[in-house]
Amino acid sequence: MSKVKKCLFPAAGYGTRFLPVTKSMPKEMLPLVNKPLIQYGVEEAMQAGISGMAIVTGRGKRALEDHFDISYELEHQIAGTSKEGALTDIRKIIEACTFSYTRQIEMKGLGHAILTGETLIGLEPFAVVLADDYCVTEADGVLAQMVALYEKHQCSIVAIEEVPRDETYKYGVIAGEEIEPGVYRVSEMVEKPAPEVAPSNLAIIGRYVLTPDIFDILRETPPGRNNEVQITDALMTQAQKGGVLAYKFKGRRFDCGSIEGFMDASNYNYTNVYKKA
């Protein structure tokens, strides 16, 4: 049985909804209180038993690599002070994980970003985390829930949640048969459908577990909506063979790709995580 040992982080986007701050800083480095979004994603992957972190970057994203590296000058300056403890979590991550990087030269959609990461993943199942979807749970993280489901079914899995019908145009949307509580065998998948034609209100969020054949499918997938290579189109090819499940995860998601969602996440994190630490 194949284990999920790597997690891919597509992180090459421009983050235009947060301009001007994202003109010089990756949106994945935006902090929820004192920790960047991508670090929460890496910690979620670690909780799922994953130690290989593969990050697809782009121009102006050097801060991502610097964050997951040792800063000898900084550590020397704060050694022996009360501030030293602030680096405990990131030190544990650096020691426990391996990080690899590649660049997406052109922005051609999420499907293209995932295909760009093939060189870092190889021929094995892998997770995908979109760091601007910040997820909180009471027990196992969303990715840990999905990895457990993958170990049972050995097929691609997308995380879903119910959204208001009038917001389906923001998401990939699925339809399918519920084969066990909260788990659907996908029969239809549409990228950002208008509410009147959406097959359901079950929207895909930024968590995936994918089988490696997705790379060959992506290579043959023509550009779709917005002339971009859509991961939903490639997954629909898998779904036609019964190879995709959708999982209604246990937890709460904040859309940190929007200013409103980012502020909600910041307030939640300050009250429920930071102050209780």
Please describe the structure with a list of short key phrases separated by commas or semicolons.
Spore Coat Polysaccharide Biosynthesis Protein SpsA, Chain A, 277 residues, two-stranded antiparallel ribbon, 5-stranded mixed beta barrel, 32% helix, 26% strand, 13 strands, 10 helices, globular, alpha/beta
Report on the architecture of this protein.
This protein is α/β, with parallel strands linked by helices and 277 residues long. It has one domain: Spore Coat Polysaccharide Biosynthesis Protein SpsA, Chain A, CATH 3.90.550.10. It has 10 helices and 13 strands. The termini are far apart.
SS elements, strand count? 13
CATH domain fold name: Spore Coat Polysaccharide Biosynthesis Protein SpsA, Chain A
Strand order of the largest sheet: 8-11-9-10-12
Largest sheet: 5 strands, mixed, barrel
SSE map:
Blueprint: E1 6-10, E2 31-32, E3 35-36, H1 37-47, E4 52-57, H2 62-67, H3 72-78, H4 88-96, E5 98-103, H5 110-116, H6 118-121, E6 126-129, E7 133-136, H7 142-153, E8 156-162, E9 172-180, E10 183-191, E11 202-210, H8 214-220, H9 231-239, E12 244-248, E13 252-255, H10 259-274
Parallel strand pairs: 1-4, 1-6, 4-5, 8-12
Antiparallel strand pairs: 2-3, 6-11, 7-13, 8-11, 9-10, 9-11, 10-12
In short:
The protein has 277 residues and is of the alpha/beta class. The chain has helices at 37-47, 62-67, 72-78, 88-96, 110-116, 118-121, 142-153, 214-220, 231-239, 259-274, and strands spanning 6-10, 31-32, 35-36, 52-57, 98-103, 126-129, 133-136, 156-162, 172-180, 183-191, 202-210, 244-248, 252-255.
